[in-house]
Amino acid sequence: MDTFYCRECGNVKRGWKVPDDNSVIRLFASEIGLVDAAGQPTAVGNALVLDFYGRLLSAAPYLAQKFPADLLDANASLNGRGAKQRDKLLAAVLAVMTMFNPGDDQRMSRLTQTLEAMALRHAQHRATIEEYGAVVSVLLSVLQDFARTSNVPESIWESAYEPALRRALTFASGRMMAAESLGLAEDSEPITEVIELPQQQQPEQQQSDEQPVAAARHEQG
Length: 221
Ligand code: HEM
Description:
Elements: H1 21-31, H2 44-59, H3 81-99, H4 105-121, H5 129-149, H6 154-187, H7 203-220
Helix pairs in contact: 1-6, 2-3, 2-5, 3-4, 4-6, 5-6
Protoporphyrin IX containing FE (HEM) binds near residues 67, 88, 89, 118 and 122.
């Protein structure tokens, strides 16, 4: 895949436009070695997800109890619950990175369906908006470190890769949160109680109500 910036000086090539988000993100995935030349996932993904969960749980240690005990154990059995969870998250991240494509309605609606199904599967964990925010920012900081290790120029990370990845991950989180809220709302008790709202006063009534008060004040003064 061609780059849109000069590998020697790190500047965007003269006359080249920064490509669309989907191309930028795919290029990023290949630059950090997350996928090979044929677009297939490599072992880099395992390291990335392990790093991600390590940072997430050190930022929010109380979350550890929700995940398998061997989540951060790279040497535990590959069939263990921790390794399976890491594989599932990696698949989800790769799906977002390859399918997020605002110029392609079909891809976006398939991505949305995938995200909604995923959100409903983990609705029981009742993740908060802050926790979703933490997932996005921790993922971005892990991706940034992988970019540094792969000698991606900082300026290109900041001007192209970070904004495109942030949009994709924010979109994913947003869709998941919306689906979770609606799914949880469906499960909740419908409101059957009739709430009586106070009657609205007519403007003339308000005026006539105000007059005696004003008069009373005047009298007092
Ligand atoms: C963009 C945000 C997120 C993505 C892409 C994501 C992805 C996933 C995936 C793919 C799974 C495997 C289950 C499945 O799909 O069937 C999963 C499970 C889980 N997620 Fe998330 N998740 C996100 C946010 C969060 C947040 C904010 C929390 C915070 C509480 C969370 C807590 C969990 C837990 C506790 C599990 C289950 C672990 C287990 O079964 O042992 N996730 N997540």
